[in-house]
Write a structure and sequence with these properties.
The protein is α/β, with parallel strands linked by helices and 125 residues long. 47% of the residues lie in helices and 21% in strands. It has a five-stranded parallel sheet, with helices on both faces.
């Protein structure tokens, strides 16, 4: 994968495409996936990257997927997208190691600023 890649996982094409367009327009590379498993097959943590995970995907709920998710969170920053008011999902994501939880509907300016902040913090390490 390329330098400063934002990995985007969502089973909703509209979310995947919108986020990819947003990060590419901001100068990042985007790698999009339908599932956590598909991302795990190619994910190589890089110094300047982050992962945006749409919590609506169902494959991360299984115990082995949760272990994989926790492992990913220990290697790169993960931003999780949740439905408005889904407090249990937000708490679970943070407990498993997600850096932040962002509620849908997405405010493009907010999520882009959060991605830039995460990548910038990784560059300073």
């Amino acid at each position: 994968m390329a330098y400063n890649t934002v990995f985007i996982i969502s089973n909703e094409p509209a979310i995947r495409d919108a986020l990819a367009e947003l990060v590419i327009a901001a100068g990042f590379h985007a790698a999009t996936f339908l599932s956590l498993k598909a991302c795990l097959d190619v994910l190589r943590p890089e110094p300047h990257c982050c992962l945006v995970l749409d919590n609506g995907i169902d494959d991360k709920l299984e115990p082995d997927r949760q272990a994989n998710f926790t492992s990913i969170c220990s290697k790169i920053p993960v931003l999780v997208l949740t439905e408005r008011g889904d407090i249990p999902a937000a708490v679970n994501a943070i407990r498993q190691g997600a850096l932040d939880v962002i509620q849908k509907p997405l405010q493009h300016e907010n999520i882009l600023e959060r991605i830039k902040s995460v990548v910038s913090a990784r560059i300073k390490r």
